[in-house]
């Protein structure tokens, strides 16, 4: 003898369990941005408990929504990626969305493969961490056919696309001013390479810091590519020329770690002989010796803000593009010291 067939959960079941009206449940599914966060959480929990999830997904299909967002990243191994992703996923979950991750490895073919998620309706919007629009070189109509896009971490050149990231210029200026305050007057900036717009922005902030110093300080840029190896190579080039700074301001922490390694291999001490300052505050920055003084990116906040802007745009396509630059914090550790302690010879 078989037992009674369990009936499918209904929207009335969800409303009763959540302690809200049927209209509120419907609104939470159709326009979550119009429902208070506490109410959305009650509805989401009730959907999970009643098994109404399948019904809600069917409703999304009828509305031609997948409730998913595609995140394109050049490399998920980037030390900044995990922190930004945590913020993205939190903001998405709060609004009833999921996240798909596309690791492009800088390959156009992979980018195009991931874009099929958008063309087939498997994702409603696109978050770019690659620094460029994935349809570069394609007709403008192809970009217009894409759903809403928000860029984060790396700016893109299109003014119609919203962007959320750290204020590279202001943060680099703070870093440079800090080194100047320690008495440094010969400060080298090691860049991140010509393909990364953030490198030029940070160089601009570095130059602003130099210009606003009472002395006429030298703009001393050495090319790198953002890797630790490029930091080591930059040090070697400077030693070959016998033209040495007292401090290094590096495009990112990876570069700074390479600089410290190269100096230590030559028998120099950081910060007694040279000061080194990075950018990003990756997890490893506090675990090397000496601990790296750096600029901390508010990665979690960046992710949350970027996802919020994208989901707002999905709910209201008429919203104009936005640009939010968040403050980077100077994190002082042991890799920088006053010029009086230098013993460069």
UniProtKB/TrEMBL annotation:
The keyword Repressor applies. CDD domains: HTH_LacI, PBP1_LacI-like. Keywords: DNA-binding, Repressor, Transcription, Transcription regulation. InterPro entries: HTH_LacI, LacI/GalR-like_sensor, Lambda_DNA-bd_dom_sf, Peripla_BP_I. It comes from the Bacteria. Coiled coil: none annotated. This is LacI family DNA-binding transcriptional regulator. Residues 9-63 form the HTH lacI-type domain. One of its GO terms (molecular function) is transcription cis-regulatory region binding. Pfam families: LacI (PF00356), Peripla_BP_3 (PF13377).
